[in-house]
Design brief:
heterotrimer; A mainly alpha (310); B mainly alpha (283); C alpha/beta (256); A: mainly alpha; globular; B: 283 residues; mainly alpha; ABC transporter involved in vitamin B12 uptake, BtuC; 11 helices; 2 strands; 72% helix
Chain lengths: 310, 283, 256
């Protein structure tokens, strides 16, 4: 089946889900969508831009806290507050990204981690504003969207729109140029591309959509906590993208699906064991894949031909 | 004063991490976890050993050895297979280890906080400059420079130490000279783990031994190592002292700002001089 | 040897100097390239050819000296800025976008050239397809258009790099060892292609080369570098007859 037919089928299945599935599964699907968006936004940088960030939780957290603060402290309704998520996250990405893109590889990763820890610490310590490690509670959607099914549809809609935007960006001239920067920065410079500026714009876009995911999660969860920005959260999109395949557009979404199902299955039986399980998977994936990213790309090429147009 | 001792724990962890990076070029994110294991082992050993005056010291001796053994397992079982791979994959792998070790600790010791009492000889406090100062810190303040001197002697006065220093500068060269570089890597990792374990064991009587210790120490040690220079022994020493002091005094003066300041300094160092104050630039 | 009117030179370097630690890689190089020239820069390995290129294209900062492009001082400009001004370049080690197809490679170069690389909305796959195909055809790669460029044969990759460089509509093209790794016949083919394109479009070519047959077949002027300085500079016949050049090169030619 052609990719667009798969998508059509998927859309129908997802639309009908609330009629067939109990609320718990709707919530699981909602989480999958959110994590899928976060990982896809992250992968704009990693798979398409060749930049691996270890601190993307910062933008997720900014995207969660911004609307939450507006709702709790300024009394705004959710629908008005939510647009703050991508805006604040993008601002954070712009500020931090300006410094981060000056470095490469390991140092890029380390600096992004450092900035994420700064965000975490600021949220943690600024108790007066953010509630510190008590977090902000009672961050709920308006009554209309409060039921699992309603919020599920709402999330699907926003995630679908976001993914469509990201897909358009990947297929756009910007996306072509971004891939060229990933492939060969030196050559990219010599066709007239200001590499740093390009990477910064990609960083901001990635941060913005990570913020959207964070905002959706805030109202899904009903509360926000500082550990949304903790470095362990930064590894979620990374692992998800790796599992699903970084070279294809829909890889991270697939990875999110598998990841969350696994998490549900393992946590159900042995809640304590999930981090262990995850850690072992990560270790195995890395040790067993002989060529790291390239091997992953090679193995996934068939899958990516089936699922992506990038 | 307590800032100095905090600096000492940091130093032990950081120098191990820095050492490992200097030789193997792997940033061991699981180093904080090794520190944590050292602290937890201390808890168990102190409980298990008979209630004598020497049991604390025996535990202090054994705990780091346990961590060193764990380090050896990790190096031989896992890290060996990924040398020469994309450094980011290596980072991700050591991050996976954080999860694995953290859960194993939880399974073995349970979720409650633990504590280790100080040995009788050092349970009280002494007067320093008119302020009461916990005697235990004297041990730390005494031991840590001893360790530092010991490390210096090892690195600059033994053949093994010379090999290590050479390896931080040029590993390939060392291999062509007939040195068993693989064995050296294992030894370095084991030694670095021992140092982390010692840090954890020493710190156990002074902090709450709890899950989450690994993350706290990791992030701070990371800052220390980056500022001091990945791979630089002296850099880690100076940096650890500075950071320890900054943390302690900072907490007194600007509690909210101190940690942010630390990370900001780390960020500045990464931007301006990524190889740290005393590290060596590489391409 | 040096054209009278400085303004008419497309590329000029004056006293260019670059030191790496203890080594003076480029030691006072004066270069004057008039428009339409096909200039070969030759010299033994280590003579400073690639360093010279890197200085001209902004990849490296020079210690002293001046670089002028079309009469304007361009020292300190970054590579992407120089590219926009009309300077193109190929690299000693083939520098293409491996995971993109040959067509996508050239399309990306065209997109950047037309300053549409920040466009987030259009479908890039359709942009400049015909122009890109035209360029591929020019270098003889039209049949390979849809293949991932990383799997192309070495010679084809170099042709692709040429097409990429040409996409920027440069007025000056710097080719760093364009025929490296090719069999002799292909070397002549590709340099003949370059010369043809130059003749058709008025493009100025500066290239480095080790194969003397190719050099004498194509170059209008030759500059000989030796240990970072210019040893000789002039038309091929004069350079060939130059005693210093013969001395330096006699040793090189004998080597395997």
């Amino acid at each position: 089946m052609r990719p667009s037919r798969w998508l059509g089928l998927l859309a129908v299945v997802l639309a009908l889900a609330p009629f067939a599935l109990p609320p718990f599964f709707l919530q699981l699907l909602t989480e999958i969508a959110i994590v899928g968006l976060f990982a896809t936004a992250f992968n704009l940088l990693m798979g398409f831009g060749g930049m691996v960030s270890f601190g993307h939780a910062a933008y997720f957290a900014l995207g969660a806290y911004a609307p939450a603060l507006l709702v709790k402290r300024a009394g705004l309704p959710m629908l008005l507050a939510l647009p703050a998520a991508p805006l604040v996250a993008a601002a954070g990405a712009l500020f931090f990204g300006f410094f981060i893109v000056r470095l490469s590889h390991t140092y890029f990763a380390m600096l992004s981690l450092a900035f994420a820890q700064i965000v975490f610490t600021v949220i943690f310590k600024w108790k007066a504003l953010t509630g510190g490690d008590d977090g902000l509670l009672d961050v709920w959607p308006p009554a209309l969207l409060k039921s699992p099914a309603a919020y599920y549809y709402f999330t699907l809609a926003i995630v679908a729109l976001s993914l469509a935007a990201l897909h358009a960006i990947v297929a756009s001239p910007f996306g072509y140029a971004l891939r060229s920067v990933r492939e060969n920065p030196r050559r990219a410079r010599f066709i007239g591309i200001n590499v740093r500026r390009h990477q910064l714009v990609a960083f901001v876009i990635s941060g913005a959509f990570s913020g959207v995911a964070g905002g959706l999660f805030a109202f899904y969860n009903g509360s926000v906590f500082p550990d949304f920005a903790y470095f362990t959260k930064s590894f979620e999109p990374l692992v998800v993208a790796l599992l699903g395949g970084v070279q294809s557009f829909f890889g991270p979404l697939t990875g999110a699906f598998g990841f969350k199902i696994l998490e549900w299955l393992v946590s159900r039986q042995w809640p304590v064991y999930w981090p262990l399980f995850l850690g072992i998977i990560v270790v195995l994936v890395i040790v067993v894949l002989p060529q790291g990213f390239v091997g992953l790309a090679g193995g996934r090429r068939l899958w990516s031909r089936l699922t992506s147009k990038a | 004063m307590s800032g100095l001792s905090v600096g000492m724990f940091l130093f032990l962890v950081s120098v191990g991490m820095s050492l490992i990076f200097g030789v193997t070029r792997i940033v061991n994110l699981a180093h904080g976890s090794l520190y944590m294991v050292g602290a937890y082992l201390m808890v168990t050993l102190v409980e298990v050993l008979p209630d004598r005056s020497w049991s604390f010291w025996l535990a202090l001796l054994l705990a780091p050895l346990g961590v060193a053994a764990l380090g050896g397992l990790i190096e031989m079982g896992l890290l060996r297979r990924i040398y020469g791979r994309d450094p980011l994959m290596q980072l991700i792998l050591t991050f996976g280890l954080i999860l694995v070790i953290g859960t194993l600790v939880l399974l073995a010791w349970g979720p409650d906080n633990k504590s280790v009492s100080r040995p009788e000889a050092l349970a009280g406090s002494v007067q320093v400059f008119g302020q009461p100062f916990p005697s235990y810190y004297l041990l730390v303040l005494g031991l840590a420079p001893a360790v530092a001197v010991g490390l210096w002697l090892i690195f600059y006065r033994t053949r093994w130490g010379m090999l290590i220093r050479a390896a931080t500068v040029d590993r390939e060269m060392l291999g062509t000279l007939g040195v068993n570089v693989a064995a050296l890597y294992t030894q370095v990792f084991v030694f670095g783990s021992w140092l982390a374990g010692l840090g954890g064991a020493l710190a156990a009587p002074t902090v709450a031994v709890a899950l989450g210790m690994d993350g706290d120490v990791l992030t701070t040690a990371f800052v220390v190592v980056v500022i001091g220079g990945l791979g630089s022994f002296a850099g880690s020493f100076i940096s650890a002292l500075l950071v320890g002091l900054l943390q302690s005094f900072g907490i007194l003066i600007f509690p909210a700002v101190s940690i942010v300041l630390l990370f900001a300094i780390m960020a500045i160092v990464l931007i301006v001089r990524p190889w740290g104050l005393l590290g060596r630039p590489e391409e | 040897m040096v054209p009278a009117d400085q303004q008419s030179l497309i590329l000029e370097t004056v006293g260019l100097r670059k030191r790496f630690g203890g080594v003076l890689a480029v030691n006072g190089v004066d270069l004057s390239v008039p428009p339409g020239d096909i200039r070969a820069i030759i010299g033994p390995n280590g003579a400073g050819k690639t360093t010279l290129f890197n200085l001209i294209t902004g990849d490296l900062a020079h210690d002293t000296g001046r670089i002028r492009f079309e009469g304007e001082e361009v020292s300190g400009l970054q590579p992407h800025q120089l590219c926009r001004r009309g300077m193109g370049r190929t690299f000693q080690i083939t520098s293409i976008f491996r995971r993109l197809t040959a067509l996508e490679n050239v399309q990306t170069a065209l997109i950047a050239h037309h300053r549409r690389h920040f466009n987030l909305l259009a479908r890039a796959g359709r942009l400049y397809r015909d122009d890109a195909a035209g360029l591929l055809d020019r270098v003889g790669l039209l049949e390979q258009a849809r293949k991932p460029s990383g799997i192309l044969a070495h010679g084809d990759q170099r042709r692709l790099e040429l097409a990429i460089a040409l996409a920027g509509a440069p007025r000056l093209l710097l080719l760093d060892e364009p025929t490296a790794g090719m069999a002799p016949r292909e070397r002549h083919e590709i340099m003949a292609l370059v010369a043809r394109i130059a003749a058709d479009t008025g493009l100025t070519i500066v290239f480095t080369e080790h194969d003397m047959d190719v050099v004498f077949a194509v170059a209008r002027r030759i500059t000989v570098l030796h240990q970072g300085s210019v040893l000789a500079d002039g038309p091929p016949a004069a350079v060939r007859a130059n005693a210093d050049v013969q001395r330096v090169y006699l040793g090189q030619r004998a080597a395997p």
